[in-house]
Amino acid sequence: MVFIQGYCEANSSISHTWVDEGISPCFYFTLVPTILLTISFFLGTIHCIFYQKYGTAMEPKFIPRSCLYGFQLAISVLLLIQFLGGMVWRAANGGELPGYVVLYGCFSALGWAWAIAVLRVERRRSLLMDRTRGHSIALLLFWAVAFSAENLAFISWYSPHWWWGLENNQQQVQFALWLMRYIGTGLLFFIGLKAPGLPRKPYMLLINEDERDVENSGQVIRPSTWQGFRKKVRMLLPYMWPRGNIFLQLLVLFCLILLGVERVINVFVPIYYKNIVNELTDGSSWNALATTVCIYVLLKLMQGGGAGASGFISNLRSFLWIRVQQFTNRVVQVRLFSHLHSLSLRWHLGRKTGDVLRSIDRGTSSINSLLSYIVFSIIPTIVDIVISIIYFITYFNAWFGLIVFVCMGLYLTLTIIITEWRTKYRRDMNQQDNNAKSRAVDSLLNFETVKYYNAESYEVSRFEDAILKYQVSEWKTQASLAFLNQTQNLIIGSGLLAGSLLCAYFVTEGKFQIGDFVLFGTYIIQLYTPLNWFGTYYRLSSWISLLFYRKEILRDVSFTALPGQTIALVGPSGSGKSTIIRLLFRFYDVHGGCISIDGQDISKVNQTSLRAHIGVVPQDTVLFNNTIRDNIRYGRISASDQEVEEAALAADIHDKIMTFPEGYDTQVGERGLKLSGGEKQRVAIARTILKAPQIILLDEATSALDTQTERNIQASLAKVCVNRTTVVVAHRLSTIIGADQILVISDGRIAERGRHEELLVKGGLYSDMWMRQQQAQDSDSSYKGRVARNKGI
After folding, report:
1. Is 567 in contact with 739 (CB distance < 8 Å)?
2. Residue 720: CA atoms inside 13 Å, Cβ hemisphere, count?
3. What band does 57 get if pLDDT is binned at 50, 70 and 90?
4. Of 64, 127, 355, 587, which one has the fewest beta carbons inside 10 Å?
5. What is the per-residue pLDDT across 480-499, written as a single tens digit (0 to 9) for each?
6. Based on the domain organization, do 200 and 260 belong to the same domain?
7. How far apart are CA 713 and CA 707, in angstroms?
8. How confident is the model at residue 727 (pLDDT cuts 50, 70, 90)?
9. ABC transporter domain: which residues (predicted)?
């Protein structure tokens, strides 16, 4: 039974701070938990309220995977249990429990429980404002005070009321608990300074970086292979372990078991070869020799070649691994394709189609080869090296183990150094290969232009020049590879020579048998063979850095579009009109200021959510090589055929489609080349009409249309844009006369703004543009009249 004899122990009081050359336990164990609970509850509550009210839940992919965070959490839970456990232990062993011990245990447990809650909230939610790097002041202060409080125990080193004497079981347990608290709080404080469980950057910046490329300036720094090695391996591992597919997971496990069996066989093949030689020289019986030979042949059949590349087990493993490799191939291609679609418009505008396609092919094959080689060649070879060193030291002597260790260490070291040096040649070769394929693809995509200007010979010459540059880089790559292979052969030969001479000496001295010499040579050659390809696969997959430069397009642009209004952007080419459209759709992000929809900054929302409410009719329309129906349906994939046709009617293209032999099932060709410019643009308008967005962006949507068709579509667009906010980029000013606000853009700035009539009265840029277009139309009408009269004559 537990008795609480009072708050403090006998002959002591909480008012006595210093007792017998130390801090009073009653005072210390009252003050410390009270301060910690106050910090965690007061600051932690404010922290949680702010994060719940003003923060947002982070997407799991932006939360760093960190073992140190798990360690933080585990230490915190362990300390919480320790406080409660210490109180229970003292009650169970002492019978009488002072009140301050109960307060210390309960207050400390509550404080640490609240700190754990704050730690979890901070990891899962983020404030919209830019936060400073690291944990919040609440957690850092809590851990700092807790660690400092444990250090205060040293002040009471000579006090008999503390546990430093370790004179009995109670003091020993209390010392163990203090040691646990001291180490735990110290680790939490110092690990907390790094904040391993939190993103390194503000959450909003991470969202933007995920949805667009980070723009850098300066030269690209090529990292070493080992830089970020842990991150690279962790990125590759999920491709080898098929999540959610038990059958494939069992295949992976079985292949790993076969891999272990191969390691065992590699040890016994040289041993049985040695036994055959010894039995032949010793004059053993035929039955014993035949048995040994059969076992050796069986093992050799299971092993195959010296590297185990064509044995029964390796062939079986390769056959079973096909399904896993297909899974890896599919996942890599799908994720890469998804990643390409998530990149910004700036990235795609700066890349070449052939370059991207070539990189996709090379990257997919490289990951497959790299995974297979790491799992089935590099790791097994390293295991074989360790086994061989242990075997030679145990069976022969330490000299042989030292020879193998020095040769292997020198082999791997020089391989890595030379391969790091020759990587620049291989990267340049890959770049030249990309350039050659890009030129070919670009030329074929623009074959019409090539024909127009009789430039076939020029294009062939450019392609041949790219091939020649590629071959120069290829020669450097192959020459450096030959140098690497010769260096490897020199090391292997030196090690084999040293070991063979030593082994032969021991044979002549009668310490070894002839079979031991055969065993050494066979084992070493078997060990070295798979290492020949180590340098080839060392830098198999290159990590490509992209380089972009910034250019300021818009400055001091500010305007407001009320719901249902139409805003028109006019101005000369290159003034920044289309850039505004792309900014609204978040193809780019602004470097200063912000763009808000209904008061919400669009840089702080997901692009998918934003773009679902915006429809765009671009200036240059590109169609998929598919049917007209599917191209229109791209605006809303779930739309029915009737809805597709209604959208085509609204875009004034339905009648034209019905004149085609196959109607809506007509194939439009590569990039829509089978349709005229006006027809392609009307398909794009039908797409947007089908999407039925709340905001419509028209980037010179009728620039490729004749006057009558333009008027028809303008009427259709006017119906579609009712009660929708519309931003129009227009070249023909006659199409935006009814706009609620016209912005005249010049050199990236808003030079004028107002309605049509207001701008004409100002007599500025807009008025000049209007007058020039009117004069051009009058001149065109006069020219058509003269042509008609001449024909009449």
Report:
1. yes
2. 31
3. confident
4. 64
5. 888 888 888 888 888 888 88
6. no
7. 10
8. confident
9. 538-772
Query: If DSSP codes are grouped into helix, strand and coil, which group holds residue 752?
Result: strand
Q: Which CATH number characterizes residue 326's domain?
A: 1.20.1560.10
Helix (H) or strand (E) holding 600: strand 600-601
Alpha-carbon dihedral sign for residues 616, 621, 624, 628: positive
Q: Contact, 104 vs 29, CB < 8 A?
A: yes
Compute how many other C-beta atoms are within 10 angstroms of the C-beta atom of residue 628: 27
Looking at the fold, whether 655 and 770 belong to one and the same domain comes out as yes
Instruction: Tell whether the torsion through CA atoms of 8, 11, 13 and 19 is positive or negative.
Output: negative
In a domain, 353, yes or no: yes
CA dihedral 172, 155, 147, 35 (to 10 degrees): 110
DSSP state of 327: H
Q: Is residue 612 part of a domain?
A: yes
Range of the domain at 768: 566-792
109 to each of 102, 149, 532, how far by Cα in Å? 11, 15, 60
Please tell me whether residues 769 and 679 are part of one structural domain: yes
Find, among 678, 500, 703, the residue nearest to 619 by Cα: 703
What does DSSP say about strands 695-699 and 725-729: parallel, antiparallel, or unpaired? parallel
For 526-530, what is the mean pLDDT?
72
* 263 lies in the same domain as 394: yes
Report the domain count for the chain: 3
Q: How confident is the model at residue 692 (pLDDT cuts 50, 70, 90)?
A: confident
Q: What is the pLDDT of residue 355?
A: 60
Distance of CA 351 to the CA centre of its chain: 19
d(CA 373, CA 381): 10
Dist. CA 421–CA 406, nearest whole Å: 22
Looking at residue 489, its amino acid is: N
Q: Helix or strand or coil: residue 745? A: strand
Q: Are residues 501 and 572 in the same domain?
A: no
Q: For 508-540, give one letter per residue: b (16+ CB within 10 A) or e.
A: eeeebbebbbbbbbbbbebbbbbbebbbbbbbb
Q: What CATH code is carried by the domain that includes residue 628?
A: 3.40.50.300
